[in-house]
Amino acid sequence: MTRRRLHLNAFLMNTGHHEASWRLPESDPYAHVELDHYVRLARTAERGTFDSLFLADGPQLWSNLAQRPASALEPLTLLTALATATEHIGLIATASTSYNSPYNLARKFASLDIISGGRAGWNIVTTAGAEAARNFGLDAEPAHAERYARAAEFLDVALKLWDSWEDDAIVADKAAGVWGDDTKIHPPRHRGKYFGVEGALNVPRSPQGYPLLVQAGSSKDGKSFAARYAEAVFTAQQTLEDAQDFYADLKARTVAAGRNPDHIKVLPGIVPVIGSTEAEARANEQVLEDHIVYTHGVDRLEGLLQLPSGTLELDGQLPADLPPESSIEGAKSRYTLVVELARRERLTVRQLIGRLGGGRGHLTFTGTPEQVADAVEEWFTLGAADGFNIMPAVLPSGLETFVDHVVPLLRARGLLREEYGPRQTLRARYGLPRPANQHVSPAAGSPALARV
Amino acid sequence: MTRRRLHLNAFLMNTGHHEASWRLPESDPYAHVELDHYVRLARTAERGTFDSLFLADGPQLWSNLAQRPASALEPLTLLTALATATEHIGLIATASTSYNSPYNLARKFASLDIISGGRAGWNIVTTAGAEAARNFGLDAEPAHAERYARAAEFLDVALKLWDSWEDDAIVADKAAGVWGDDTKIHPPRHRGKYFGVEGALNVPRSPQGYPLLVQAGSSKDGKSFAARYAEAVFTAQQTLEDAQDFYADLKARTVAAGRNPDHIKVLPGIVPVIGSTEAEARANEQVLEDHIVYTHGVDRLEGLLQLPSGTLELDGQLPADLPPESSIEGAKSRYTLVVELARRERLTVRQLIGRLGGGRGHLTFTGTPEQVADAVEEWFTLGAADGFNIMPAVLPSGLETFVDHVVPLLRARGLLREEYGPRQTLRARYGLPRPANQHVSPAAGSPALARV
Predict the structure, then answer these.
(1) B190 and chain A: CB distance < 8 Å anywhere?
(2) Does the structure show a pLDDT above 80 at A37?
(3) pLDDT at residue A1 above 60?
(4) Which residues pair with A367 in a beta bridge?
(5) pLDDT tier at A361, thresholds 50, 70, 90
(6) Which is more confident, B256 or B2?
(7) Burial profile A31-41: b = 16 or more Cβ within 10 angstroms, e = fewer
């Protein structure tokens, strides 16, 4: 049996995950539109033998322009460009089931999977927020449960589309003048509540069959969805105990959904802030906090908590009478995490904004490379994680520091591959089997159906 | 005044534009999913100092699998990969206004324009056919006029989105902690018949402002649309006289729409079939016709003419009582072109299929390099074309032959650039000004508004 190894994903975001990162002297405030910036990050992650890199997304302006970089290149477009600049690393794009149509999106992911040689992944999001909804003809955001119902139907249709060509549908018989075998094409003929999709995809089945399916919502609806569909899960957890609970719960739900719990990889997000001494790491963190514009932080926190503008005071606590998660139609699990963090540590609004500035609710690991490696190893070995979503506070420097100083320690401890070896698909990197086509019965000796 | 020069666009399609091209011994029947095939084609076109390359598209399986390669990578995805493999050539993707949403599509084109350094173009199509409609929840294709009404609103919204950031919206004031100037953001706040789009795009204004706008429908609705929006037009014309009429008509309509007629470039499609002698060229053409499977051709012709299956006989003429174009809801101008071609030349169904096999209604120029160059020069100088959409019957060989043998003649005659020179945007290659932002009044000395 091969040794269990960490899976590492590099979560790339403009100048870094800390909201004030763009203000540092080293940062390029135009990084969000610089292909070269992203090529450098992707190659750094590949030097660190990461499994994958990842881009978040939402189809709306990300904030007021005054606050911070509010834009990003469209993820599938950017990842296609990065596919040609890299060889091994997986490429995970966020795309919304609420604001796309299955035919177009399934085709784009199949195309990226073909162009990248089987390295595409899809972070499936339902997209919270009224701002996105209003860019797609709606007056308000659809209810949380409605978004997830649409997402489930979207996935079912997308899987039908990706399986609409059997792997050997092209016969290429030049002499007979027969290019393909129409009996190996399976049109979805889908008529559901949200979508009608009659015909087969116009791209063949891709190297992975379909992209690695990734999910990141940790609400009850989100976890049910993940148990049914997801192969990797990004999650925000503030304590080892919470992370262990989440891990055990998600694996149990996956078993209950009839799937192998090893076929869903749990990757908590961490924000490493590294120094050659603990004091230097703390000082690096302080520099970032000193660059926060707190009035912007108050605006955003009021938005997240759905409070009227002007409710929060910087040196006060959160109001005692916040509504329960069940009444929130936006990002439910983020809401609860932030409220619990503030209550548990009795943080003022100012302190809470400082804590959220780094990772928007993800855990910050501040310390020396050894301390960060220790924390990673602890979570990995104590049943809290199959790997990590690495969210550097500042980019590119934070990723370079992690790769140059933490990765060698993880390799020395046998937790991370030394090199990639031969080219593999993203799904193979994550130790997952290639999914069988739902229209093909598994022949004796062929891999068992991974899902469906 | 600079000399008027030809604009050349390379229309890339799998193994070539002839329906039987995939059957030739030299052809790769998997070319449709091979990035390297397209990289080779793009670099060949760049060697020929073409202005641009172009991918057609429709969101449905392109034919029965038996007939011919029925699939294609999604164009924006493929062109993004080609952007990283080329330096100068424009990249024109087809995308449908009927089956996309403006926010997503405007963002993808802006992203490609940024990644490619201002080389993106959009071939705007309304997408004929019930098969596509049924992949997007509709039972039948929307009526022709309805599709064009939606297209016009789509363009208006897309232009608002591309202009929603002024060029200097990012101020990047690190000391003050102000990244951008919110007064330079102009949300569309659009509520129309087909679309509601409230907010600004989440990508800055791109190098070209927006992609080069290309159009290819030659129906009355299509020409009205082109006169209003298009900067380049692809068209199928079978005779010099028809091409001159179309050219004059479109330029006049453009003037009537209040635009400069030099700001719309007319590019008829031609299928060059080249040999070192005229006899060799004819023999090359005959080899292709010999590979046509005529039963497939009958199926497709019956589909285009909206006739019941089994109506046409291979050695008979078209029926005398075909309906007028006005009753056709699909590809109107293609319908009329095919019917007129058959009538004018008294072609049997078999002969018609042979003629359409090469270019689906586009003109085939068969001959020596000199003869092809003569025909190109004649159309260009006699008011029939500003350039050509080059549609090689077989790829990659047909494009290589054109670049190696016809391009040097065009250069020697002073009709085509010798080299690209410094990097330019696609719009600059076509001799068009960068469009001003609709929210910014042109200051004294700045380029005049190109449109709007």
Answers:
(1) no
(2) yes
(3) no
(4) A274
(5) confident
(6) B256
(7) bbbebebbbbb
All residues of chain B having their beta carbon less than 8 Å from the beta carbon of residue A138 are 196
Among B61, B95, B100, residue whose Cα is nearest residue B75: B95
pLDDT surpasses 60 at B259 = yes
Ligand-binding site membership of B37 (annotated)? no
pLDDT of amino acid A452:
29
Q: Are the C-beta atoms of A89 and A53 separated by less than 8 Å?
A: yes
Q: Which CATH class is domain B7-275+363-429?
A: alpha beta
Radius of gyration for the alpha carbons in chain A, expressed in angstroms and rounded:
22
Mean pLDDT computed over A348-368: 84
According to DSSP, residue B443 is labeled: P
Token pair recorded at residue A256 = 């209950």
Q: Residues of chain B with pLDDT > 90: what percent?
A: 81
What is the nearest CA distance from B416 to chain A, expressed in angstroms?
Answer: 30
pLDDT at A104 over 90: yes
What b-and-e string marks burial along B311-335, b requiring 16 or more CB atoms within 10 Å of the CB?
A: ebeeeeebeeebeebeebbbbbbbb
And the tokens for A237? 């957890």
**Cα(A356)–Cα(A345) distance, integer angstroms:** 13
Residues 6+ apart with CB under 8 A from A91: A52, A53, A79, A82, A83, A112, A116, A119, A120, A121, A426
Taking residues A207-215, report their average pLDDT. Answer: 98
Q: Of residues B217 and B301, which shows the higher confidence score?
A: B301
Q: Per-residue pLDDT for B379 more than 50?
A: yes
Q: How far apart are CA A410 and CA A413, in angstroms?
A: 5
Q: What is the mean pLDDT of chain B?
A: 93
Its ipTM equals 0.94
Residue with the larger pLDDT of the pair B117 and A328: B117
A392 upstream amide cis, omega within 30 of 0: no
d(CA B305, CA B291): 23
Q: Are B122 and B93 in contact (CB under 8 A)?
A: yes
**Residue B212 to residue B434: CA distance in whole angstroms:** 10
Chain A residues lying within 8 Å of B78, measured CB to CB: 111, 115
Alpha helices in B101-239 (DSSP H): 102-115, 130-134, 144-162, 220-229
Contact call for A73 and B104, based on CB within 8 A: no
Q: What tokens were used for A297? A: 């932080």
DSSP string over A286-306 = HHHHHT--HHHHHHHHHHHTT
Q: Is A62 an 8 Å CB contact of chain B?
A: yes
Confirm or deny that B397 is annotated as ligand binding: no
> pLDDT at residue B451 above 70?
no
From A196, which residue of chain B is nearest by alpha-carbon distance?
B137
Residues 6+ apart with CB under 8 A from B207: B113, B114, B117, B118, B425
Contact residues for A299 (Cβ-Cβ < 8 A; gap 6+): A64, A67, A309
- What pLDDT, in 10s, does the model give residues A215-246? 997 888 899 999 999 999 999 998 999 999 99
Between helices A75-83 and B102-115, what is the axis angle to 10°? 30
CATH superfamily of A7-272+363-429: Luciferase-like domain (3.20.20.30)
Whether the predicted pLDDT of A444 surpasses 70: no
Ranges of each domain in chain B? 7-275+363-429
Q: Looking at chain B, which residue has its C-alpha nearest residue A34? A: B115
**Is B206 one of the annotated binding-site residues?**
no
A65 and chain B in contact, CB less than 8 A: yes
Mean of the pLDDT values across residues A62-72? Answer: 90
Which candidate from A112, A131, A178 shows the least CB-CB separation from B66?
A178
User: Average model confidence (pLDDT) for chain A?
Assistant: 93
A83 CB within 8 Å of a chain B CB: yes
Distance of alpha carbon A197 from alpha carbon A190, whole angstroms: 5
